[in-house]
Write a structure and sequence with these properties.
Elements (H helix, E strand, L loop, with lengths): L1 H14 L12 H14 L18 H5 L9 H25 L6 H13 L8 H14 L4 H15 L13 H24 L15 E2 L6 H8 L6 E5 L2 E5 L3 H25 L5 H17 L9 H12 L7 H20 L1 H5 L3 H29 L18
Antiparallel strand pairs: 1-3, 2-3
Helix pairs in contact: 1-4, 4-5, 4-6, 5-12, 5-13, 6-7, 6-12, 7-8, 9-15, 11-12, 11-15, 12-13, 13-15
């Protein structure tokens, strides 16, 4: 508890301007962009036409939440509410540690990992979506319908939380959780359609996105640009720096195809898996989200917050098979903070230091993804039946 309080106080002091965190300033997204959305959302309409808006409609709740603290500035209220969501995740991981067979390693992963990522962890709303996902996973065993509702709300906030249901035990629990999740998504969708304007415009406004410069698919362009073999450029596009130029659209299609193949593998794993347990529930959620991140056209630094929360649940269970991938993710957090905010300039310009850091971070994500998939498969595959020993001929003496 003390370690959590001290590290979060340090992060908040950086966000409040008491001390300067090295590198790029992570605060303008909240103070300018989020605040602008807040003002627009108060009118009952979503920011249609704003290329930086790329979120499901329930994300509006996160951007409107600072209204509950009207005596503070918008940015200060948002940071404190994000810290409150951080505290919820920490408390949930401590609760998981107190269960039979539980461990404190998961809570420590959360404390250390978020501290390593730096102030950006509390300057984005991803920690709020992570709290919903962790709560959904912990509710599966006793209240699968509640878990489905939480996952459905999470899907309407950030999409990915619905993936945490990937490892729910087949049968009644799966039916109840997934039906509840689907019903929640439909119900919320109808509410937004009835009472707001432009709630689902984000679905059609991201079609022209390129390859975000921090993603795995961007690495060939970084290297080619550094060697003078590519004539494209990196520009602020759809709210983040993306590569624009020759072959970018082709790479975008390749990345999308890889994502489809990866999720095809997850479906195949689900159909073939035979062993299910609490450890498998957490391991499958971690693996599914890790694959989602690694194969995405966009890998923002705050995405690793999702993996810290889900990885924390894995480590809270002594039977997890994901220890090595989680260690790799923690290492990736260290390289992520070197990439943004500390060394973002070299990354944008495709300078050698930026390329090296990206190769290390994205390489760790790729290795962790492959390892997580292999470990999940091995831990849930049907047991092998040993072949019967060949019968030896018996010699009968006449």
């Amino acid at each position: 508890m003390l370690a959590w309080a001290v590290t979060r106080a340090v992060l908040l002091l950086a966000l409040f301007g008491v001390w300067r965190y090295p590198g790029e300033d992570v605060r303008p997204d909240v103070a300018v962009i989020y605040h602008g959305w807040y003002e627009h959302l108060l009118t009952g309409s979503f920011p249609v036409g704003d290329v930086t808006w790329q979120y499901p409609p329930a994300a509006a709740a996160a951007f409107l939440a600072p209204a509950v603290l009207p005596f503070l500035s918008y940015a200060s209220a948002f940071y404190l509410l994000a810290c409150a969501a951080d505290a919820v995740v920490f408390a949930l991981l401590l609760r998981a540690a107190r269960a039979p067979g539980g461990r404190l390693e998961g809570a420590w992963l959360w404390v250390v990992g978020v501290a390593v990522l730096g102030p950006i962890a509390l300057a984005r709303y991803d920690v709020m979506a992570t709290a919903l996902a962790v709560a959904a996973l912990l509710a599966v065993a006793r209240h699968p319908r509640v878990a489905g509702v939480l996952a459905g709300i999470g899907a309407m906030v950030k999409v990915w939380p619905v993936l945490v249901l990937a490892g729910v035990m087949p049968g009644r629990a799966t039916r109840r959780s997934w039906i509840s999740a689907a019903a929640t998504v439909v119900a919320l969708g109808l509410v937004f359609l009835a009472f707001t304007r432009g709630a689902f415009a984000f679905l059609t406004e991201q079609r022209e996105r390129g390859i975000e410069i921090e993603s795995l698919g961007a690495l060939p362009f970084h290297v080619a640009r550094y060697l003078g073999l590519w004539s494209g450029t990196s520009q602020l596009h759809y709210g983040s720096f993306e590569f624009l130029g020759p072959y970018v659209r082709t790479m975008s299609e390749v990345v999308l195809a890889v994502t489809v193949l990866a999720f095809g593998w997850l479906v195949w794993w689900r159909l073939r898996a035979r062993a299910f347990s609490h450890a498998v529930l957490y391991d499958a959620a971690f693996t599914a989200v890790l694959v989602f991140i690694t194969t995405s056209r966009v890998i923002s630094p705050q995405y690793l917050i999702w993996l810290l929360g889900l990885g924390g649940l894995c480590l809270a269970h002594r039977c997890t098979a994901q220890r090595l991938p989680i260690v790799l993710i923690l290492a990736a957090c260290a390289f992520t903070v070197l990439e943004f905010p500390i060394g973002f300039g070299p990354v944008v310009r495709s300078n050698l230091p930026g390329i090296v850091v990206l190769l290390a971070r994205d390489g760790l994500l790729l290795v962790a993804s492959v390892s997580a998939c292999r470990r999940l498969w091995r831990s849930t595959a049907p047991p092998r039946i040993p072949a019967a020993a060949p019968k030896q001929a018996v010699r009968v003496n006449a």
